[in-house]
Amino acid sequence: MLKLTVFLCLILYTNCKTHSVSDDKELLAALKDVSPGDTIELADGKYHNTFVTDVDGKDGKPITLTGSKKAVISGSNYGFHHQADYWVLQGFTVANSKKGIVLDGASNNILEDLEVHDIQQEGIHFRKNSADNILRKSYIHTTGLGSPGYGEGVYIGSAVSNWESNKPDKSDRNQILNNRIGPNVAAEEIDIKEGSCCGIIKNNVFDGTGMSGENYADSWIDVKGEGYTIEDNEGNHSLLDGIQVRHK
Fold first, then answer.
1. What is the CA radius of gyration of the chain?
2. Which of 31, 43, 131, 230 can pair with 22 through a Cys bridge, CB separation 3.0 to 4.6 Å?
3. Is the peptide bond before 183 cis (omega within 30 degrees of 0)?
4. Is the pTM of this model over 0.85?
């Protein structure tokens, strides 16, 4: 997959650049230096720092961050804080952080073939109007180690109590596809908050073993948003229900 990504980059974007990194300082520099169409390749190893993206790719010229599962990103607060559009996050691991991957105001991104585990709170959070993203073919487990009631596998939007200026968090049209979520996800496998709309939750496999029950976390999916398509998912070991739909 790594060679294919670079090959396609060379064919499609003659001015694209590949940034090969092997430690946290090189990764920090690459995240600031990238341009649309570029690729950042992670060598196997541990990367611990405050990693934030704020450089946008473009439609048709995404920025790609790629590595193997042995490339492990972590941070004291967020493992990976993504605040940019048109990126592909591919192949690597995020672990041993307060929160796993947090998307803030980040749209039109693809997250695929990732592993997120050993997280104190939620694994992956789409918030602050992060829309039109795809999370697919990833494995999320062992979350909520420090705060079980806030240990969702995937969290879409924001609770009304966290809305800015009393305006809904329009983290809309996000797609959660073909993922494996659980075991040891302490809250819901997927929590969809009020104010968000029109996403797709499809072909995921849930394992509720280790669900804590705190903050009413007793189902694989908790839905307060509107207009969602939820189909062809399967799972086992829920505390109470597979899906709970709530009017908020």
1. 17
2. 43
3. yes
4. yes
3-state secondary structure of 202: strand
Please name the residues in contact with 61: beta carbons below 8 A apart, sequence gap of 6 or more.
12, 13, 16, 36, 37, 86
Among 153, 159, 221, 228, which Cα is nearest to 183's? 153
Q: Is residue 3 part of a domain?
A: no
pLDDT in tens, 141-195: 999 999 999 999 999 999 999 999 989 999 999 999 999 999 999 999 999 999 9
Domain presence at residue 22: no
Residues 114, 123: Cα–Cα separation, whole Å = 11
- The total of structural domains in the chain comes to 1
Residues 146, 223: Cα–Cα separation, whole Å: 24
